[in-house]
Design a protein that fits this description.
Oligomer: heterodimer
CATH topology of the largest domain in chain A: Rossmann fold
Radius of gyration of chain A: 25 Å
Order of helices and strands of chain A: EEEHEEEEHHHEHEHEEHHEEEEEEEEEE
CATH architecture of one domain in chain B: Orthogonal Bundle
Distance between the termini of chain B: 21 Å
Order of helices and strands of chain B: HHHHHHHHHHHHHHHHHHHHHHHHH
Largest sheet of chain B: none
CATH superfamily of the largest domain in chain A: P-loop containing nucleotide triphosphate hydrolases
Number of helices of chain A: 8
CATH topology of one domain in chain B: MetI-like fold
Shape of chain A: elongated
CATH architecture of the largest domain in chain A: 3-Layer(aba) Sandwich
Helix content of chain B: over 70%
Shape of chain B: globular
CATH class of one domain in chain B: Mainly Alpha
Strand content of chain B: under 5%
Strand content of chain A: 35-45%
CATH superfamily of one domain in chain B: MetI-like
Number of domains of chain A: 2
Distance between the termini of chain A: 31 Å
């Protein structure tokens, strides 16, 4: 388990105001859970991880690793990094270049807090090397490893002392695309098999969506939204989240009707749009209607719904293999639309597009 | 992440939580020691240059304040002769070095000249010759009557010598040839740093080779090359050995030799004048260095991300290649072959004769026997080894600690430490020598006239160079390498022992050897501080020469060059070994 409450940190900046890196971070990673901090660079996700690891000292808040309070501003507790029990994989892998694979992996058992007898070192290093399929490379000097192998060695070193918590700081960002995809599944699989509590930091939405049990989207030192990947994708709480995870179209407007059953209407420049509204969407409020490109459909045949149909002109059509990626104009508003490749679309063509009301989300206009 | 990337330095957490932590104490102890060794002596020089001083009256005191020293210096017309000599000498040798080294660098880096890969070897070989040795060799070559080149000149039917060794032009020439190695290295680096795609873009726009060179390449290189030229100027201004060997006896003084003359050769010593000259030299070098830093930062602005491994386009020389070959041949002759040859030749003769078959018949190893059996050689050798080893070890120890504090912690005051380390670079070796002389004459102490005062002075003088090695090494070691060790549960000392030291060792050994070699070669500081029992080899060699034993001086030169050559070879091998770590 990892628990972080009200974590705050400021960096002094030389020629400007101090940078507020963390503005009160709260989250809890349950035992065995795969939890991801997702956000653009500079959002504070790595700083959060480094505070948990003990490389940075926050100014306020509490950090728990398992059942141990490792940092508390109030109680003046700051357990130094070596005494906190976790495994970590760095973005650069940080494989020591003057050691072999074996020496790298054995380091926590030989020099760390939980030293074990020599015979056991051997046994445990080979067990973990087997786990990541590197047992043949034990004697290889570190400089002669490929990027993917270094990644595995870093994982082995993080796991060899059998910690209950694993911290991963953008571990895949230095790998090539194909390897990255393989490692995504492998790391998640390994974490689940070992039932280890994992905190994963990334700026890659695909990694977050495919690997995590739960995702926390961060921006400017705050957690904006927390939830399962599917929930966040379907119901983003604001414009930033909608944009950061997946693609989205935004239609600004005013709420013109809001019913108890969760349906309402938003008056936009292109007409009234029926959509799902939440309770706080009072009539007259300025909002934005969000709809994903894949949720726009082209009306074919003669049967037309009586609502949410917009007259549009096709601007560009790009064939990407599994779909047509199009831009269409509705009066002066441009919308992104992804449709099945069998759809007959030509640039310049006039079409009617349908916005399924259950896929239209009303979100606050300011992000 | 951008937030963390903007701050490269952070206090390591191991230190946090402990109120009076060992790191902070170590930092302040180091800063204090360097303050005493670097800033305090220079402060004493400043103060005493404004005092009416005599032997026994030096010190940290504000009594007898006067501008008299400066008045004495600048009311004397000889001062202006000295100033002009210094400037001509510095500018002239700068030009010679820049033309020689720059042309060789251009030929090596950018032309299709055959065998150009051997040019660096030819240019680097003179590095194993100390300045004293070069001076001796060139006197054998350019002495008005017996000098080999002048005799050849006479044999061609010309009247008078080609160039007299004891003249300003000869000093300029010898210093220029000597500094051409540095010019070659720095200008070569400047040329390599340029992004070849900038040139390719010009070629792609249809420009001819000549246009590309004059409109793109040269303008891009100018700021960098200007920086190099300024550095050469500073070096020329500080130079001691060549002006000493060639100009001292004919009273062609420059700053360094005049300071030496006032403080150690004149009787009674004229401290006031020596200090005033030292201060003037400081003003000159600091000003030049200031301009140099400006030029450097400008040239860095010009550097577009480079080092992608593209080879720049080589310029076909065509029939110019014969001129290029002739030039390289000429350089090999004057830079390497003639000086080496004449030293070996004169070392084998009981008294100097022009090279001929007849003279060869009296050749013997007598000079070598005499040199090696001289009673005071062995204490001198012992001192030299102490100097080299103590400086090599001491400098790298201080430098690695300082680099670590400066680049890996956010301790307050690390800017001060950085400044203290840089300070000796801004003042010349002679000035450091003078400052140490004052320091140890000011306070009663047991180390004046021992080798240890020389050790301390050299340590301070070469600290900036040593710290360049450690700076590069420390910056190169990724921070996550040490964090990975902490995360694995290793404490501070284990991390130091198992991660830091093994990773730094190649750079430390390399840097130690480099500064050791410098302390053996350079005599400008030792010559101000040596006493009867604290001679070092460079000073000893110069005195053997000065007392009129040219054969023995040559033999000793040859031995010294062989020893330095071996050391340099070892250092380069180690440097190559450490490259393995660079990629990771």
């Amino acid at each position: 388990m990892i628990k972080v409450t009200n974590l705050k940190k400021t960096y002094p900046a030389q020629d400007q105001d101090a940078v507020q890196a963390l503005r009160g971070i709260d989250f809890q990673v349950e035992p065995g859970e795969f939890y991801t901090l997702l956000g653009p660079s500079g959002c504070g996700k790595t700083t959060t991880l480094r505070c948990i690891a003990g490389f940075e000292e926050p100014e306020e808040g509490e950090i728990w690793i398992e059942d141990r309070l490792v940092y508390s501003s109030e109680k003046h507790i700051n357990v130094p990094a070596p005494k906190r029990d976790y495994g970590i994989v760095f973005q650069s892998y940080a494989i020591w270049p003057h050691m072999t694979v074996f020496q790298n992996v054995a380091f926590p058992l030989v020099h760390g807090q939980r030293r074990v007898p020599k015979k056991e070192v051997n046994e445990r290093v080979f067990r973990v090397l087997q786990l990541i399929q590197l047992e043949d490379l034990a004697d290889r000097p570190a400089p002669f490893l490929s990027g993917g192998q270094q990644q595995r060695v870093a994982l082995a070193r993080a796991l060899v002392h059998e910690p209950r918590v694993l911290l991963l700081d953008e571990p895949l960002s230095n790998l090539d695309a194909k390897l990255r995809e393989d490692m995504r599944f492998e790391i998640r699989d390994l974490a689940k098999r070992l039932n280890i509590t994992t905190l994963y930091v990334t700026h890659d939405q695909l990694e977050a969506l495919t690997m995590a049990d739960r995702v926390a989207v961060m921006n400017a030192g705050q957690i904006i939204q927390e939830g399962s990947s599917l929930d966040i994708y379907k119901v983003p709480s604001n414009r930033f989240v909608a944009n950061f995870i997946g693609l989205a179209n935004f239609l600004p407007g005013l709420v013109s009707a809001s019913k108890k059953n969760g349906w309402g209407e938003v008056k936009t420049k292109t007409g009234n749009i029926r959509c799902a509204v939440s309770e706080d969407a009072a009539v007259g409020r300025e909002v934005v209607v969000m709809i994903r490109p894949e949720d726009l459909t082209v009306c074919e045949g003669t049967a037309r719904p009586d609502h949410n149909v917009l007259e549009a002109r096709v601007d560009t059509v790009v064939f990407t293999g599994e779909m047509l990626d199009c831009w269409v104009s509705v009066s002066d508003q441009r919308l992104r639309m992804k449709v099945h490749p069998s759809t007959a679309l030509e640039p310049g063509q006039s079409v009617q597009i349908y916005l399924a009301p259950e896929r239209c989300r009303v979100i606050a206009s300011s992000s | 992440m951008s937030v963390s990337a903007t701050r490269q330095t952070r206090l390591i957490p191991v230190f946090q939580g402990i109120r009076l932590n060992p790191g902070k104490i170590g930092f302040w102890v180091l800063t204090l020691v360097l303050g005493v060794l670097v800033a305090f002596p220079l402060g004493l020089l400043v103060i005493n240059s404004f005092r009416e001083v005599s032997v026994g009256d030096l010190g940290f005191s504000l009594s007898n304040l006067t501008l008299g020293n400066y008045w004495e210096a600048y009311s004397n017309p000889r001062t202006f002769t000295m100033l002009l000599n210094s400037l001509w000498f510095a500018v002239g040798s700068m030009l010679v070095a820049a033309v020689l080294g720059g042309s060789l660098a251009f030929l090596t880096e950018r032309t299709d000249l055959r065998f150009r890969q051997f040019i660096p070897i030819i240019v680097l070989i003179p590095l194993i010759m100390p300045g004293v040795v070069k001076g001796i060799a060139w006197i054998f070559l350019l002495s008005p009557r017996i000098g080999l080149l002048n005799q050849w000149w006479g044999a061609l039917g010309f009247e008078g010598p080609l160039l007299s060794a004891y003249s300003l032009p000869a000093m300029i020439w010898v210093e220029g040839v000597s500094m051409s190695t540095l010019a070659f290295l720095l200008m070569g680096a400047t040329i390599r740093r340029m992004d070849p795609t900038l040139e390719e873009a010009a070629f792609g726009s249809g420009a001819s080779t000549g246009k590309v060179l004059s409109r793109v390449t040269l303008p891009l290189l100018v700021p960098g090359l200007a920086g190099v030229v300024l550095l050469l100027f500073i070096r020329g201004l500080e130079s001691f050995e060549i002006p000493m060997l060639l100009g001292f006896n004919s009273r062609i003084f420059v700053f360094s030799t005049n300071i030496y003359y006032s403080l150690r050769s004149a009787f009674p010593p004229d401290y006031g004048l020596g200090f005033a000259y030292s201060m003037t030299l400081v003003v000159f070098t600091v000003a030049a260095l200031f301009v140099y830093q400006r030029a450097l930062s400008r040239s860095e602005r010009y550097t577009v991300v480079a080092g992608k491994g593209y080879r720049p386009r080589l310029i076909p020389l065509g029939s110019w290649k014969y001129a290029a070959f002739a030039f390289v041949g000429f350089y090999s002759l004057v830079g390497v072959l003639l000086p080496f040859f004449i030293l070996v030749w004169s070392s084998l003769l009981p008294y100097y004769q022009t090279p001929s078959m007849a003279a060869l018949s009296v050749a013997s190893f007598e000079n070598y026997v005499n040199v090696l059996s001289a009673g005071d050689l062995w204490p001198t050798l012992q001192n030299t080894i102490i100097l080299a080893v103590a400086c090599g070890g001491g400098i790298m120890f201080i430098a690695v600690l300082a680099s670590w504090f400066i680049h890996r912690t956010n301790l307050r005051g690390r800017k001060l430490l950085d400044f203290l380390i840089f300070l000796p670079f801004a003042v010349s070796g002679v000035t450091v020598g003078v400052a140490f002389m004052i320091l140890f004459l000011s306070f009663p102490n047991p180390i004046y006239n021992t080798i240890w005062i020389i050790v301390l002075a050299y340590m301070v003088n070469y600290l900036p160079i040593g710290s360049r090695f450690t700076h590069a090494a420390v910056v190169q070691i990724h921070k996550e390498l040490e964090e990975a060790a902490w995360a694995s549960g290793a404490g501070f000392w284990t991390t130091l022992r198992v991660i830091w030291i093994p990773l730094l060792i190649p750079a430390l050994v390399n840097g130690a050897l480099y500064v050791s070699i410098l302390t053996i070669k350079v005599m400008s500081i030792a010559v101000l501080l040596y006493g009867p029992d604290s001679q070092v080899l460079s000073v000893y060699l110069w005195r053997v020469w000065d007392t009129g034993e040219p054969g023995e001086a040559s033999a000793l030169s040859v031995l010294l060059v062989i020893a330095l050559g071996t050391l340099t070879f070892v250092a380069r091998r180690i440097a190559r070994g450490s490259d393995v770590l660079k990629d990771s």
